[in-house]
Structure formats: structure tokens, C-alpha cells
UniProtKB/TrEMBL annotation, chain A:
<dbReference type="InterPro" id="IPR035906">
    <property type="entry name" value="MetI-like_sf"/>
</dbReference>
<feature type="transmembrane region" description="Helical">
    <location>
        <begin position="133"/>
        <end position="153"/>
    </location>
</feature>
<feature type="compositionally biased region" description="Basic and acidic residues">
    <location>
        <begin position="1"/>
        <end position="15"/>
    </location>
</feature>
<comment type="similarity">
    <text>Belongs to the binding-protein-dependent transport system permease family.</text>
</comment>
<keyword id="KW-1003">Cell membrane</keyword>
<feature type="transmembrane region" description="Helical">
    <location>
        <begin position="282"/>
        <end position="304"/>
    </location>
</feature>
<keyword id="KW-1133">Transmembrane helix</keyword>
<feature type="transmembrane region" description="Helical">
    <location>
        <begin position="177"/>
        <end position="200"/>
    </location>
</feature>
<feature type="transmembrane region" description="Helical">
    <location>
        <begin position="100"/>
        <end position="121"/>
    </location>
</feature>
TrEMBL record, chain B:
<keyword id="KW-0813">Transport</keyword>
<dbReference type="Pfam" id="PF13416">
    <property type="entry name" value="SBP_bac_8"/>
</dbReference>
<dbReference type="InterPro" id="IPR050490">
    <property type="entry name" value="Bact_solute-bd_prot1"/>
</dbReference>
<dbReference type="InterPro" id="IPR006059">
    <property type="entry name" value="SBP"/>
</dbReference>
<protein>
    <submittedName>
        <fullName>Carbohydrate ABC transporter substrate-binding protein</fullName>
    </submittedName>
</protein>
<comment type="similarity">
    <text>Belongs to the bacterial solute-binding protein 1 family.</text>
</comment>
<dbReference type="InterPro" id="IPR006311">
    <property type="entry name" value="TAT_signal"/>
</dbReference>
Amino acid sequence: MTHLDEAPRSEKTEKAVAPAQGREKKLPGRDRLTVIVMVAVPLVLVVLLVWVPALLSVALSFGKWNGFGDLDTIEWVGFQNYQDIFTIYPAFWPAVQHNLIWLGFLFLLPTVLGMLLAVVLDREMRGSRFYQTAFYMPVVLSLALIGFIWQLFYSRDQGLINQVFHSEVDWYGDPDINLWAVLVATAWRHTGYIMLIYLAGLKGVDASLREAAAVDGANEVKTFFQVIFPVMRPINMVVIVIVVIESLRAFDLVWVINKGRNGLEVIGALVAQNVIGEATRYGFGSALAVIMMLISSIFITIYLRTVFREERQR
Amino acid sequence: MSRPPSTAIPRSTMVTSAATRRSVLRGIGLSGLAVGGASLLAACGGDSGGPATGSGATVKFGINEAEGAGAAHDRLAAIAQAYAKESGTKVDLNAVDHNTFQESINTYLQGTPDDVFTWFAGFRMSQFAENGLITDLSDQWPIDGLNDSFKQASTASDGKQYFVPISYYPWAVFYRKSVFEKNGWAPPSSNDEFMALMDDMQGKGVTPFAFGDKDGWPAMGTFDILNMRLNGFDFHMSLMAGDEAWDGDEVKGVFDTWRKLLPYHQADPLGRTWQEAATSMGKGECGMYLLGTFVVDALGENGEDLDFFTFPELDSSIGSDALDAPIDGFCVASAGKNQDAGKAMAKWLGSAAAADAGNNAADAPFIAANSGASTSTYSDLQKKSAEVVGAAANIAQFMDRDTNADFANTVMIPSIQEFLKNPDDIDGVTASIQEQANSIFG
């Protein structure tokens, strides 16, 4: 709302002619209507499409319902679902752990690698377009295809890796290994994504900054870390958010591989296992989804607090 | 089966499965090899006199095989065509990928389903009936050529029929005839012979059993057969219904036997699909493979070099006369627009004419449920399947069809995989299953 309040005021100071007395408080009818519509429509959409379903999930998480019949067939069980998840559901704690590993891994490897590739490709070397396309290719491939491609590599009996190295590693089946195998596949995809974002960011960096740094005698590495990187702060923020969200909602690749079982449990896949498909534990699945929502909101809160604090400092 | 009819979930299973199976097979046995369904054709055409059928009417037919899925789709498409020709009703075919169809079945039935759709006998069918999602077809029964056992398999917990069977397939131990001949092996008829066979295979550097459980469900077949061999069919069905303890000595015994058999199975099953396991049996790296007859599909051949035997007995007081043989067929959706047309078509789908229309049009036939259906297109494997299933005293539908879908998918698949990872912690696995069963079965 601050912007709306400010707009007419600045207008007034700039052009003393236009607005009459009292405009400060009241917009003309048409403008007001426009503002109301512009606020109301997105508000209704957000409430209907985000808040209502989210709150319904929370409500559903206190019940037991198999999806047959009307809502009055829901049997309300209080915190039973949550209690079951925390105590007798063997997949839950491994899933939390796997999501955290996922988060750490994505930050450490693909993000850094993507950044490095972006810096290298940004230097207008020969064939850089080709490399860009090659690295970005995995991002546009459909997940079903990605699952299939990696199955060809990882299959224990017929896969490329075991054939080439004459090994007998059970890449997808061994619960100690398969998470890392999947993370490599994810990194393969994620690197290209991060690379593209940073490439776009680097193109936006003012060339005179580089020149100035060069004139001052800074070498390439120093220029990047002390000049370019800080300038790209908004991009870094976007990347952090993307990585956090990607790892919390990690789901698709795991689902394609083994539906998130046997060492590949992640919370997103557990939700799906319980509510998508033939199993219809809607209450239980909703409780898992609510837990996922709470974990995500921790990260979102931290992010928003940092952003707001900086806004204030400015 | 004198169980109290009170418990919520068990009830349905009792009717669809337990009481059923004994007689099912007796009937099927007789039916399997009979030839000549022509006389039945006449019976099916005219009886759908309702205004919603006949020329000008349309019936929507949802099938769980997408175009291009091979023989399974071709058969159903041919059946739909034959019905359209026969009755003059326009058949609107809705072909959906097999897994997608199965996984979206709940929303499908509660949304705008087709009038008639493909489904399976067993607990899930009965559950839909209890929830009013499928139409009572008892006025269409009896159907010529489908004996009492099939009628019982089509009956839900309220004693009415909601299902029309068309085909079935057994789970058994498959092997390559050429590999067995070359090594002088023969199908075992007792537990001792079975163990001796497996030891001999290992001695010759062949892994006795191919085994893959990446998708989670194939190992259910192993659990089913071991439980039926060790604790008997009645216990198995009642366990599936949630009436027996999963952490009792019986189930622990099953896992313990399985643990002892695991060294005879391919290592690392959790990363291997059933297709890959079938391939290693096909290549002769493994001697045998416990799977459904669809194992042929993974081998890219017509199965002439394949043969099978039923899993041998483990306990002589229990015997070996029970097996998994899931029945496929059709239901009419309650939310379907054209109920009369749906019912009439469902009845016809149970006829020998329907089975013949399907089998004549596809490379690979199914084993028809109708005793009047022609067996001339059957492979040797199928003729034998019909015989073996006919000779069995009890038939189960497979774990994920015999028990609550929530339980099968979210508890049993991960639990069996956990056991396969860590076969020594039987107490831990069974205790966890029981805790979760309590929560789900209520």
C-alpha cells in the first residue's frame, strides 16, 4: 500500500497544477475502482487457490478419510495422524534426513558448479553457445525421460556404469548408495538451471565495473569475488530461494525411480504415496503435507526476515 | 469361515475371496479346455431390450490399456468392436495407460466415469461396491458359461454381484525348458526335491531364483505363496483382511522361511525391475522365476521354451493346492450416464463370444473365464495354466487386490523392502507392520 499512497503525493509535488485539494486522501472514483479491482482480484485468487486449500489440508490432517463418499464420512481423530507419523511411520525420519542432505548437496555442488560454468561461458569463448545448450539440455527434458536415461546408466545388471567398470554396484537398490546416485542425476539437471540464471545475471553486470577493477589492478578472481559477486546480490537471493524450494519439494526424480521408497524417501514423495494413486489415506497424507509446509515456512520466514531487514536498513 | 461379520474391512474380503476360491477353481478347471463358444453367441445379442441400448444408443467403455500397449489393448478394442457390431450400440472407447488408470481409479469413479470399465475381482471391487461407486449387476447373473466359483468371485460383501470376469492368470514358478533339459533338472514335487534342485543349481553356478522388487509389488507374490504354503489359504485371506496379527508366530515364520530362501535368490533385488529379473532367467543366469504368466512379455518371445510348476509344498499338512491367480473383468460405474446400456454390455462381456472376439484379434490370447470360450488360440503355457488353476483348491487374487489398498501400498511395500534389505530383523519389521495395521484397519 505504501506505493499507492506515495504515488499521488509525488505527483503533486512535481506538477502542482493537476491534483486539487483533498486528492491526497481520496482518489477519484475510477482510480479507486481500479485499485480495488487490482487488489481484490489477486486477493481472491490467492485466498481461493492458496489459503483455502492450505487450511483445508490442515483441517483434513486431523481426520481419517478414504476419499469415498461425502465429507461427513470423515472420522475426526485429533492428533492421531501426527502421532503415527512421528512414532510408527518408519519412512518419516529418513525422509526428513534425506531432504536435508538434498539441501546441503544442492548448495555445495551443483550451485557452485553452475556458477563456475556461468563465469567460464560468459567469457565469449568459441562455442560457448553450444556448451550453454548442452548444459541446459537436461533442464528441458521431461522427467520421465530423465528417469529412463539414468536407469540406463544405473541398472545393476544391464547398466552402462557397471558394464564399463565391471562392477556390481546396485546403484538404485542399495539404500546407502541410491540417494547419492539420485543426487548426481539431480545435479546433472540442477547445474544447467543455476548456470542459466547466473549467465543472465552476469550479462546484466555493468561492463564499466570490470574495467574499473582491471584498471585498479585486480586480477580475474579478485574481480569476481569482490566486485561482480556482490553486485549480483539479487540473483544470489533468487538462487538461494530456488535451491531451498527445489530441495524441499524434491519429488519427481525419486518418484520416477522407485516412488520414494527404499532409501529414497523424501517428504514430498511420502505425501504422494499416501494420497495419489490407489492408496487414499487423505488424513495421513495431509498431515505429512502440513509438516512439509511448516518446514518450508521456517526457511521462508528466515528469507523474508533477511530481505525486510535489509530493506529497512537501506 | 465363521468369522464375525462385524469388522469393517474383513467383511468384504471374506466374501469375495475366502468363501470363493475353493469352488472357483473347480469350475475353472472344467471350463479351461472346453471348446466351442458358438452356441453362446445367440444368447447374448438380444437380451438388452432397454431403450438405452441397441442402435442409436451409446455406451462408454473405459479400458486400462492404452493404444500401442500391445495385445492387451488389441483384445479389449476388438471386444468393444465386436459388441458394437453385435448389439448395434455405439461403443465409445476410452483407452488409458494401465498404471494411470489404476492410480486414478478413485477420482475416476467419483467424477464422470465411463459406463463400463475394466477392473479386478477382490477386495477393491468389494470396497467400491460398499461405497456405492459401482452398480449392482446381480440382475445380469447368472451368465452362461461362468460357473458358481466365478459368480462368487464377482460377489461383494452384501452378497450381490458387482463384477463380470473375463480372464485370469496364475502366479507360478517359471523356467526355461531347454535349461532344465540341458542340466537334467525336473520340477520338484516335494520340499526335499525343491531344496535339492536349488542346491544343484547353485553348484552349477546358476542362481536358483531370479528376483526383482524395485517396483515394490513383485515380492508380494513371494510373501503370498509362502504364507499360503506355511499357514494355509484361510489364514492368508484372514490376514489380508486384517483379522490376524502380523507380529504373530505365523507371519514371523513366513519371513523366517523367506530369509532362509533368500540366499537362493538373486542378490540386491531392490534395484532390479521384474523385467530385468525375467531377462536374467531368460538368459539362463537364473534357473527359475516366481511371477505371473506376464513374464513372457519381458522375454520378447512367444514362450515356447517356457514352462512352469506351482510352488512346491513346504508343510505336508498344508499341501500345495493354493495359489495367486488374479481375475480381470468389468464393472459398471454408478455414476455412468447410461446404466442400462452398461449393464447389458457387462453381461455380454462375460460371454464366450466376448472372450473369443478378444483372443482372435490379438497375437497373445488371455485365458478366458468363460467355459464356452475357444481355446484354439491358446499357447501351451496357457493350456497348462488353465489346467493348473483348475486343479487348485484355493485361489487368492494377489496381496494388493486382496487387502486394503492403503495398507498394501503404504505399509506392505516398504515393509517387505525393509525386510529384503535387512532380513535378520524380522521382529522389528513385523512389529512395525502390526503397529501400522492397527492404525489403518482401525
